[in-house]
Amino acid sequence: MKGRVAILAGGTGALGQSVTMRFLAEGAVTCVPFAVPAERDALSNRIEPAARTRLHFTEADVTDEASFGAFVKGVLDTHGRIDVLVNGVGGFAGGDLLSTSLAEWERLMSLNLTSAVIGCRAVLPAMTAAGAGRIVNIASRAVVPPLGGFIAYTVAKAGVITLTQALAREVERSITVNAVLPSTMDTPGNRAAMPDADRSEWVSTDAVAEVIAYLASERAGMISGAAIPV
Description:
Helix content is about 45%, strand content about 15%. It contains 7 helices and 7 strands. It has a single domain, classed as NAD(P)-binding Rossmann-like Domain (Rossmann fold, 3-Layer(aba) Sandwich). By secondary structure, the protein is of the alpha/beta class.
């Protein structure tokens, strides 16, 4: 990915940090919107000094079209191109349909689905003009087939898969749109939430990042509209 410009929404999160580090290791210029300064600082401290010149942080709200649009404009003004978008923002909460308030439903839709819609809308004009681009959305293995108990999250992530498949049919063939569906990931948050769980089959964030990086590469130009479990 040397010389390519990537926007990594969610790039400071548990999975996002692995994605950011993988893209930097492969030579990409990585542009990361952030909302939590502590997460930005934690990621920055993990990056080798030689790679920090290719890592650019900007505070932005990925669930707000104006805020994220301004972020994308800044990337274009600075770098002149956008080659990759990874929509990795998300949030989880349990609850069945009756116990999930409408406010909580809308919050999870905004974090998991609307953020991906906003991200795609923001980068598509530049990618279409360039005749090339890679979009990778993060869904979840837990929603195929849908499970009960966390219905708002399930519906939102299922929407991400449908968004991916429909958008792949709408865009030019040189722009690919794919979704990655991780199973339970081995993150500090999941360890804290499930301290007694058997983690032997949990997937590492580095493994998920490897699949994302492949789909973002030039080699994956023949894949579009896929929902790939990891």
